[in-house]
Amino acid sequence: GNLFGQSYGELLKRRKERCQSCWRTEKRIRYAIRRMVKSQACYWIVIVLVFLNTVCGAIEHHGQPIWLSNFLYYAEYVFLGLFIAEMLLKMYGLKVHIYFESTFNIFDCAVIIGSLFEILWGAFHPEASFGISVLRALRLLRIFKVTRYWASLRNLVLSLLNSMRSIISLLFLLFLFILIFALLGMQLFGGDFNFDEGRPTQHFDTFVKALLTVFQILTGEDWNTIMYNGIRAQGGVSGGGGIYAVYFVLVMLVGNYTLLNVFLAIAVDNLANAQELTEAEEEQKLKEEMQANGENMANEYHSEESMPQAQVKPVQTLAKPSPPIAPLTNQRRITGTSVANTWVKGEKLAHAPLPFSQILQDGMNAERTRLESFGKLNMVSIESDDTARLQGSTQQTQGKPILPYSSMFIFAPNNAIRRFCHFVVNLRYFDLFIMIVICASSIALAAEDPVWEHSSRNAILEHFDYAFTGVFTIELVLKVIDLGVVLHPGSYFRDAWNILDAIVVFFALVAFVVRGRTLKSSIPTPSASTLIMEQKV
Questions:
Q1: Which residue range or ranges hold the Ion transport domain (predicted)?
Q2: CA dihedral defined by 476, 419, 435, 170, rounded to 10 degrees?
Q3: Range of 74's domain?
């Protein structure tokens, strides 16, 4: 029994050792593959494969010879197999969870799976194709990974990514500009671009065509022809249509020469930021090299200091009283070991130089002290900022106080009607409600039919215009009662946006009273007046 137990234990021990040996071998292989797939040589091999795959896709054309079709057919399988091998090697070397942490790796895996699906589908259904092979052309995006080895290009890309918030805000502003002028163009030129030779491609009869027409004007492509058609549609230069050229000039001045050039300003700013990042990286790299050289010199000094005493020749001198040692500055202290090393045959060297490592250490200590003091200052500033932010949030939660002035010489600060108006205007969702009404009025304006003015759809939308204008009028009355008219600071008409809102509401009410075809070109309709309200966005 003991013999059997010993043999069984030895067998388990040998199996365990064999498993450990296999595990170590597998680990070495994994590390070797990891180094290989992360090497620069492997990266450039993949880039070359992507380039060759692109060339094969570019030389494909209609009416190509049969041998070229066969070559491209098999080359497609070769490239797909190489990309699959690359993906599997990366998954094995980096481990699967680390592999999928990269967005590029996820994209590559999705494209490969799509390519495999298309090949399998084409094998079973040769007459059908999803066209997913186009996705493989997107592997050209892998060329952007060259920024990993190109510092200046990497910094430029990072600067562009950091400025995406500004770019998106500018794009939204540009979209609002196009939307406003497209709706205004529908009101001015809707249904009027009908000439004897036919209707031109650029017109304002529908919302989509109006958007495209304004966008074409912004690009500067044949915009003067569109302007001449607009003047011609309104009676020509002699018939008073020349005044409508102001619309097209405003689109060009504000949209093309102002908004679009802001993109150029952002690009120039990004170039400056990228240059600063590159210079900072070069400076940091230089500091690291200097620090590494300093550590090497310190190590050499320590190696010389640790030489055996037998190799040091004794100095035969008479003991003399040494002068007092001056106190060291910069918080430098000589330890007992350094003092003992300065004695040679009973004589102390008063002017022995400090070791280079001690100088480095003292410099690091001084830098650490400076950083600690700077950190304390930053903590003080952060605490003050937090205090100010807390006070600001407290004021926001408490709400804005009523202005300590009489509104229109009628409503005192403690008047019940004024307090009610102040409460409604400062509700959390009041501005959101007004914004929703503005968006709804814009949608109603875009849904109008400028060609058939007396259609049933326009009749329904006219009732919505009454409701929208009523909401804007109520908003105006509430704010005037709450803030006052114009005499005291903070009153309603001391804000430019409030003046614009009042003008819009005034013309809308006038348009409701004065109805008629003859007033269309001189007094804006309720729909046209709500158009300007979109600028509050």
A1: 41-278, 428-516
A2: 90
A3: 38-148
Same domain? 173 vs 258 = yes
User: In which residue are the tokens 């502003």 written?
Assistant: 173
Sign of CA dihedral 403, 404, 409, 414: positive
Q: Is the pLDDT of residue 162 over 50?
A: yes
**In sequence order, what are the residues at sequence separation of 6 or more whose Cβ sits closer than 8 angstroms to the Cβ of residue 176?**
534, 535, 537
Average pLDDT of span 71-93: 89
Query: Tens of pLDDT along 383-428?
Result: 444 444 444 444 443 568 888 888 888 889 899 999 999 999 999 8
According to the model, what pLDDT value does residue 376 have? 47
Query: End of a domain among 117, 148, 179?
Result: 148
Tokens of 36: 């290989």
Domain count, the chain: 3
Residue identified by tokens 């006052």 is: 484
Three-class SS state of 343: strand
* Residue found by looking up tokens 């002017």 in the block: 351
Answer yes or no: is 517 within a domain: yes
Q: How far is it, in rounded angstroms, from Cα 265 to Cα 271?
A: 10
Q: What is the rounded distance in angstroms from the CA atom of residue 536 to the CA atom of residue 505?
A: 14
Q: Where are the alpha helices (DSSP H) in 342-455?
A: 356-398, 416-425, 430-446
CA 471 to CA 463: how far, in whole Å?
Answer: 13
CA 340 from centre of chain: 62
Residue range 13-44, pLDDT digits in tens: 777 777 888 888 888 898 999 999 888 888 88
Q: State the greatest distance between any 2 C-alpha atoms of the chain, in Å, as a whole number.
A: 123
Q: Is the pTM of this model over 0.70?
A: no
250 in the same domain as 143:
no
Question: What are the CA-CA distances from residue 221 to residues 215, 292, 508 (Å)?
Answer: 9, 59, 35
What pLDDT, in 10s, does the model give residues 435-469? 998 888 888 877 877 767 778 888 888 888 888 88
Residue 375, in any domain of the structure: no
Higher pLDDT, 378 or 170: 170
| Cα 307 to Cα 316: distance, rounded to the nearest angstrom | 20
CA 305 from chain centre, in angstroms, equals 56
- Residue in 138, 140, 133 with CA at minimum distance from that of residue 118: 133
When pLDDT is averaged across residues 42-67 and rounded to a whole number, the result is 85
In angstroms, the CA 467 to CA 436 distance is: 13
- Judging by DSSP bridges, how do beta strands 343-344 and 347-348 pair with one another? antiparallel
CA atoms within 13 A on the CB side of 464: 19
Cβ–Cβ under 8 Å, residues 191 and 450: yes
- DSSP assignment letter at 399: -
CA pair distance 17, 23, nearest whole angstrom: 10
Helix (H) or strand (E) segment spanning residue 76: helix 66-94
First to last CA, the chain: 90
